[in-house]
Amino acid sequence: GIAKRFALWFLLRFGKSAGSVFLSFLVINVVFSAFISATTAKAAILLPIFMVVAAIYGAYRDDGKTNFGRSIVLQNLLQINLGAGAFMTGSGANLLAVAIIGGAIGGKIYFTDWMMAQFPVMIGLMLIGYLLAMKVFFPLKPEERRPQIEGGMERLRHEYKNMGKLSLEEIKSVVLFILILGFWATDRLHGISATSVAFVGAVIALMPRIGIVKWNDVDVPWHLMLFSAGAYTLGAGLSYTDLPSISVNAIFDHVGVGHHTPFWALYMLMTGVMVFSAVLFQSKTMRAMIFIPIAIGVAGRFGYDVVSLALPTAFMIEHVYVLPFNSKPAALLYETDMYSYTDTAKYGITMMVISWLVIILAGETWFRVLGITPD
Fold first, then answer.
1. Which DSSP helix (H) or strand (E) runs through 73?
2. I need a surface site. Which of 65, 87, 207, 282 has the fewest CB within 10 A?
3. What is the pTM of this model?
4. pLDDT class for 365, splitting at 50, 70, 90?
């Protein structure tokens, strides 16, 4: 319950106007992304809360959809996915990509490597999404900027009060999650992998008396663990057999692409294919399994460092917010009936193009400083 408690507290504390409500959800989504490794779970937690807010601001009307309703749902959809892209642990697809790249290079990508590169990029994109929604696509009418239901926020305040005082279990969960995040964020200093930290955290969470959950209450996704182990093995196998390079070489030789193609042409190609493929694919995991090995193979053919192409390609996995079938959160939020296909398509495609341009700019600047892309 700590996630819901935090969301309600933050919204009641800082959501004093329509603009501050939207910015509050941006902050809430970023915080959730650091701790919750599932975009669908974040959507499920936030959906009831922002739907109540939508009702308070008059989004439910007989004469059609409102810009407040469109904006609050589509901004949350964007932020749920972009927030996941800010952290290596933001989703299973990110972890899969990192496993494949780690297997290919015979090393590992650190939590801090991903966060340092992506956190500022994703925050910038969220703010751009906020401004475009509020100023260009879904500008609010004067009456939409203030609550339409008298004392509407009292419902959220009442729900928050009903949760009672912070319990011992909640305090223990906060301490545990902050310790886990702290170890993740300092993995370069102590060398303990994110997997080991999470495993120890899970053991502590399940310990009698000390822990916060009971074993029988936890549905352990063994299939996901086996899948992740297989993904890492796949990455190692790709490296050992050089299959990506062999395949890419065969394709490029067939179409007549020479060995002197500039790095930035390949960079734009791989990041562009990854981000725009999200419009057609329903699975982030499938996109990671298809395009990360291709990026590894392209890097091998042209003699570039694997990380320089494969990691920026992996950074584009979470851009799955254009159409309702592009991701589970998109499908879940479309059921709110707050927006149309046209609304999500024009807003989503615009953000997708901007995200591609931003990753190109980052590759020329920020990623170069971090040593990801070549000088």
1. helix 67-85
2. 207
3. 0.80
4. very high
